[in-house]
């Protein structure tokens, strides 16, 4: 019992949905333990020797079955070997029950020809079928759980309408396609939706506010989001679209990134974007950024976009719970393309507090149940070598699951150093000079300068990566002190610390 209590303590952390913008502690997932009500310590070393005792004393050495008696293959629960080759099936079965651990994913590593598995046990939480289905998710094996109520018996005997599961590595894998001009292109759901390569530039204020940079990316044949955060009235947004339209080839569509968290901007940009589309302007997509609406509100937003003739919408979830909310939105709007943009905590600028992989391991299957979800990710990608494993899906093999291909990739902070970006040369130099860190170390930015970067809270009260210069270090200090206080106490704090802060900043300025 002491061991169980200690283990429970290790897994006690529960990352609750209401705190998805807080830094992740060392154990960034929720785990549950159920105690089995059994009288013996089965599948453990405590029962070593029980097999010999049972075989010699209870069965008197009699062999109950022989390998050739098995009509079908029966697999060992620990190593997946076929019991046909076992010298003693009785001894093997006893060993598996008494002293051997169960490695169920190994035992159910079926050949590629397997398409269905049937669980004839009780089903529910006590059955092995749901666990098997989870282990085989994305492998093309449909698990039919009969259960004590027989809910799935009809499917078992239905020979005319057999249901199958998808192989993720086949259905969502990239392919090559030749277009009418004879050129070869990558073919993914992203490229099919937009007619462009599976790489995009995400909306950023102020980088993608500028017409010059947006038009250069569009003219090069890539997808980019015009940042709505830099447009404060309808005239400014209309003028920007007209400026971009004058710089890009005819027929190229424009997408707006609008901040849902900012009602004043969103409430004029969303209807204006529909109005402009009805006027015939080349606005073809709309991104709901910095927040995810409810399923009902999202349906209202999508309905307005569809009615105006806008072709697709994007959402940017930042946690597993919010990913599932986007999945719910897709389920409620099955005929409208949704670009889901996932970025983990490693990305530049505004970022999630999550590891980039763990949420995908948890939610990829639910995402792929909806063919209208176009899955795009960005998490420090920089070139073909680091994108390739995610394009093919091979990145997930290291976690013991099926390949999980991505449909597209987004670049953001990285393009701030591009020649065409309007970023000042001194800022470009600072970005390039930041040393960066390995994946396992990025969470250090929450507490100290890490790889030249600090995480602070932006004006949207969301975590954002910043180059750790003097001003950002002061920003971080204020985050941890005055900005951490209730608003009514901040003036008092500033008055109390005014002189000391002026002295420190003056010394800091002199040193630098």
Automatic annotation (TrEMBL):
Xref: Pfam families: Fas1-AflB-like_hel
GO BP annotations listed: fatty acid biosynthetic process
Coiled-coil blocks: none
Domain Fatty acid synthase beta subunit AflB /Fas1-like central, residue spans: 337-498
Protein name per its UniProtKB record: Fatty acid synthase beta subunit AflB /Fas1-like central domain-containing protein
The keyword Acetylation is annotated on this UniProt entry: no
Lipid biosynthesis recorded as keyword: no
Native source organism of the sequence: Heliocybe sulcata
A GO molecular-function annotation: fatty acid synthase activity
Segments traversing the membrane: none
Alphabetical UniProt keywords: Hydrolase, NADP, Oxidoreductase, Transferase
GO cellular component entries: fatty acid synthase complex
InterPro entries hit by this protein: Ac_transferase_dom_sf, Aldolase_TIM, Fas1/AflB-like_central, Fatty_acid_synthase, Fungal_FAS
